[in-house]
Specification:
The chain is built from 8 helices and no strands. Helix 5 runs antiparallel to helix 6. The relative contact order is 0.13. The protein has one domain. The C terminus is likely disordered.
């Protein structure tokens, strides 16, 4: 997709309209994002394995300590993921059927190889002058595009599942701190509170490993959404095209915005929960506790006051958890 769009932009001796140029740039960006995802997975296998292992072991152990079933978080997000899958399917169907509807609507008026009849406006390989040739090429495009969109959607669902589990772990961590303060004048406080401090550090390390590969993908998704929004808005408002052509861009626009919105919403929730830990600690009755317990509380208080970063900061050496 990336090289095909670049070839169409640079090699073919044709004059491109503004909307055509924007559409080809969009194809190049989406193709680049897919390459970025695959490359990121290849070079960050250790980080991916660590985040997956944390979900399978560390998070499960902490949930059991808090007397919460490990699948409780997934049960809560099951409905959300189900509706996400339905929405993704509808968007893919719109993207697939839009060009076909345009081709049917334009029979006898517009040539079959017009760009509004294709999911991807590709460099000319064969002369499209019959319906069976058009059907063959559009089927290949449907197969490739479905694979592309499903791979992006499945990775997004993995990210949603991971961030949802992380959000649940921060809530359980808050409950663990509250439970520790039930024994604030007892020797059991040391055991419960230190366990909470260790789990907090584990969550931060997991976030840092997650960001090593996700920051590149998030940066690409943001760039893609900006391009999609620009092109889709222009095509929907300015381009005089058939309903099928506009239906394709509506599906593309909703697909990418929904993928990015769900991840950003969960990221904001995690940052908020991390900030609320310091408030939770400050509001506890710690001032009349023994001094050796207060030292541990101060350490945890300093950790929770540091800023938590979940963004696409690929141009700076900033990790998810700012160490001081």
């Amino acid at each position: 997709m990336f090289f095909g769009a670049l070839f169409k932009l640079t090699a073919e001796k044709t004059i491109l309209s503004l909307d055509m140029g924007l559409e080809l740039i969009l194809y190049a960006v989406v193709g680049f994002i897919q390459t970025l995802i695959i490359t990121s997975f290849f070079f960050n296998k250790r980080a991916i394995a660590l985040t997956f292992r944390s979900m399978q072991t560390t998070f499960v152990d902490w949930s059991l300590k808090r007397r919460v079933h490990p699948d409780n978080c997934y049960d809560k997000s099951e409905t959300f993921l189900f509706y996400t899958m339905i929405g993704t399917t509808i968007c893919i169907i719109c993207i697939m059927l839009g060009p076909v509807l345009s081709a049917i609507y334009d029979i006898g008026n517009v040539p079959l190889d017009h760009r509004s009849h294709w999911i991807l406006h590709w460099p000319t390989v064969i002369n499209i002058d019959t319906f069976w040739r058009y059907g063959l090429i559009i089927t290949l495009q449907m197969t490739a595009t479905t694979y592309l969109l499903l791979s992006v959607a499945l990775y997004s669902m993995y990210t949603i599942a991971f961030l949802t589990e992380l959000k649940e772990q921060f809530k359980l961590l808050t409950n663990g701190i509250r439970e520790a303060f039930h024994y604030r004048m007892d020797q059991h406080f040391q055991v419960y509170f230190v366990d909470s401090v260790r789990h907090h550090q584990t969550l931060m390390n997991t976030l840092n490993e997650f960001k090593k590969y996700n920051k590149w993908i998030l940066f690409g998704e943001i760039a893609t959404v900006e391009m999609v929004f620009l092109l889709a808005t222009y095509c929907l408002i300015k381009v005089d095209a058939s309903f099928g052509y506009k239906l394709k861009f509506i599906g593309i626009l909703v697909f990418w915005i929904a993928m990015l919105w769900s991840q950003c919403t969960l990221g904001d929730d995690i940052i908020y929960l991390h900030k609320s830990l310091s408030t939770e600690l400050y509001c506890m009755t710690w001032y009349n506790m023994p001094n050796h317990y207060k030292k541990n509380i101060i350490v945890m208080f300093q950790r929770t006051q540091r800023d938590l970063y979940l963004n696409s900061a690929i141009f700076q050496n900033r990790i998810a958890y700012e160490r001081q």
